[in-house]
Amino acid sequence: MLVLDESETREALPFPGLIRAVEAMFAGECVVPLRHHHAMEVPGEAHATLLLMPAWQPGRFAGVKILNLFPDNHRRALPTIIGRYLLSSGKTGEMLALIEGGELTARRTAATSALASRFLSRPDARRLVMVGTGRLSLNLIAAHAAVRPLQQISIWGRDRSKAEATAEEARRAGFDAVAADDLEKACRDADIISCATLSSEPLVCGAWLKPGAHLDLVGAFTPKMRESDDEAVRRARIFVDTREGALNEGGDLVQPLEGGVITLDDIQADLFDLTAARHPGRRHAEEITLFKSVGAALEDLAGAILAYETARFAKAGA
């Protein structure tokens, strides 16, 4: 069985190929049962989450991700997300690969946002605001840059020193990145705003979104969490990764739906619709678009298959 650590997983998942793999999985045949989502008490700390996410392509591949999300792991200098992905043959059941789950999750999440951005952001988008300084931030910057000609990156975080450190990492990766002091000012100038935080209160206000802006909401993966306010969802045309996931787990939509701010009819399409050309995505340059994702097991399966095939080919050629 092939075993990939964090760096090997990263090397096996370049964003252009991963975005294509995620797109193909949404457009193709994949069985995705309801994922197991369990809250776990951690005495004296924020509740943790245990995720079990299975998916399979009949006769080809099957896989399951076991993921632990511990929000207070930063106190121990540990990653928030820890897990593994087990990929098996969908024909024989043979276990093929064990893949580092945190890196797989970060990269497939960013690739999914970039896939949505390809349908929803303006093709000439050049200014990106990254809200959040965690593991996902650099992945989201790189993924969005793989589909749009980004030239200016502003990074905002509650902790200015973390925003500076993330901006420095982004510059080392070749991006023109700076830490932003004023989130409102940065957002008012942004073509794309990408949020990846654990916030329980809105951070981005709809009044800040300029005509043509695209809002990418990746954090707030429980109904009690929120990254955008009611005005943002009221002004924007709304898209999701999967309706079942986003409309049951994503607080950015669950809360305004419960409050009557929006209705189910306001959800324009999901990635199944977009990749199958049942919906065109962005219709004109001035509209504001919003994409809410909470993650789907088929994204993990797409990434795991790509990582397995890429790494196996590399080892065979070594």
TrEMBL record:
Family matches, as InterPro entries: NAD(P)-bd_dom_sf, ODC_Mu_crystall, ODC_N
Molecular function terms, GO-annotated: oxidoreductase activity
Domain of life: Bacteria
Cellular component terms per the entry's GO annotation: cytoplasm
GO biological process, alphabetically ordered: carboxylic acid metabolic process
One protein family per Pfam: OCD_Mu_crystall
Key words, A-Z: NAD
UniProt record similarity statement: Belongs to the ornithine cyclodeaminase/mu-crystallin family.
Name of the protein this chain belongs to: Ornithine cyclodeaminase family protein
Protein's organism: Rhizobium straminoryzae
